[in-house]
Design a protein that fits this description.
The protein is mainly alpha-helical. It has one domain: Hypothetical protein af1432 (Orthogonal Bundle). About 55% of the residues lie in helices and about 0% in strands. It has 9 helices and no strands. The longest helix is centred in the N-terminal third of the chain and has 14 residues. The structure holds fe (ii) ion (FE2). Fe (ii) ion binds next to helix 3. Fe (ii) ion (FE2) binds next to helix 3.
């Protein structure tokens, strides 16, 4: 790199910007990949993702929150224990801070609904009291995420969310 030229970097920047649409396509293919994961739940992880996003949309969430709801567990493709942070970092340049935090900390909020069965503290959300994103994270966990395992729920099709994914991932807001 220390022998590279400004002209070369201009070319790289131009081609990188032109290639940005591949990000959304990769995200969509990861969502489809979630259909291979069920791990004992009553629906597979793709249905869970779509159902969470559908519930968010039906309760008036904005587009960034809907797309984050669709992606919130996509980190499970790689590693379950740290899946919230994986998904949150994928989203980070493309969404506002509170949406990033909603995904990054969602497991602490979700714990209220089942951690007692695993001998874990169900009140980890209390560590986040006072954060500006607390209310959003609470709504996400309690009203959308934890309910989104219903095999009889009339989820919207993934195609409904595809244009939203393409718009949110069209351009990074930050790096
Ligand atoms: Fe979830």
């Amino acid at each position: 790199m220390d022998v590279s030229t400004r002209e070369q970097w201009m070319t790289i920047a131009e081609k990188t910007i032109a290639a940005q649409p591949r990000v959304a396509e990769q995200i969509l293919s990861m969502i489809k990949g979630l259909s291979a994961i069920t791990d004992g739940f009553s629906v597979d992880q793709m249905e869970h993702a779509i159902q969470t996003a559908t519930r968010a949309e039906r309760e008036g969430a904005d587009e960034e929150v809907i797309v984050a709801s669709l992606l919130h567990d996509v980190g499970k493709l790689i590693s379950v224990p740290n899946h919230p942070k994986i998904a949150a970092e994928i989203l980070r340049p493309y969404v506002r801070e509170e949406v990033y935090c909603m995904v990054a900390h969602h497991q602490d909020f979700q714990g209220r609904h089942y951690y007692e069965h695993l001998g874990m503290n169900p009140n980890l959300r209390e560590n986040h009291v006072g954060q500006p994103w607390y209310e959003l994270a609470e709504k996400f966990a309690d009203r959308w995420d934890q309910k989104a395992f219903d095999p009889g729920y009339d989820s919207l099709p993934l195609e409904h969310f595809e244009p939203m994914v393409r718009r949110v991932f069209a351009k990074a807001k930050s790096i």
